[in-house]
Amino acid sequence: MPVISGPLNDTAPQTAETLQCKEEAISKQDPQAQAFSLGQGSKWKTVLWSDESRFEVLFGNLGRHVIRTKEDMDNPSCYQRSVQKPASLMIWGCMSACGMGSLHVWKGSINAENYIQVLEQHMLPSRRHLFQGRPYIFQQDNARPHSASITTSWLRRRRIRVLKWPVCSPDLSPIENIWRIIKRKVRQRRPKTIEQLEACIRQEWE
């Protein structure tokens, strides 16, 4: 299980456009939202962070090379087999400063109705376990199932406070760093099937 002691900084290289977009997103937030998303003070400890991420069975060619002469350029033995659509899993997870919450593997389509089921079956139990009755605020991005009217109505009926999140917000949530850590560890284990991939993800999450 990844150890969480505060906001993490393990990031992938970003483009200038991404950085500009991120800066604009932060500047448009109100001061309270900035404090939450940037982990200022102790406010971020009251947030239940959530996110989805895709994991693939194949992680590229891992720098594979072949040694050949110029004449062997078209030799089939020097070809690399291409994969049009690698097998993958979409994962939902949540976490807080207190630890890791529940993990869900999407098996069907991702729509508002299915997302509400995930909130009922995974987010609510995680909230009880991690905060034990203490005040908290729920974070989610602006994906369509999250912002659908039936989802927002469900959240209002249960009086769940939701952290206002900017539309363009790459890497503002600490859980993005958790995904990177888990993907790195899963990649090192090199799962060859969907079943192995799911098992690796669950083991690293726990």
Automatic annotation (TrEMBL):
UniProt xrefs under InterPro entries: RNaseH_sf, Tc1-like_DDE_dom
* Domain Tc1-like transposase DDE as annotated: residue spans: 47-197
Question: What GO annotations for molecular function exist for this entry?
Answer: nucleic acid binding
Q: Where is the signal peptide?
A: none
Put simply, this protein is called Tc1-like transposase DDE domain-containing protein
* Phylogenetic classification of the source organism: Eukaryota, Metazoa, Chordata, Craniata, Vertebrata
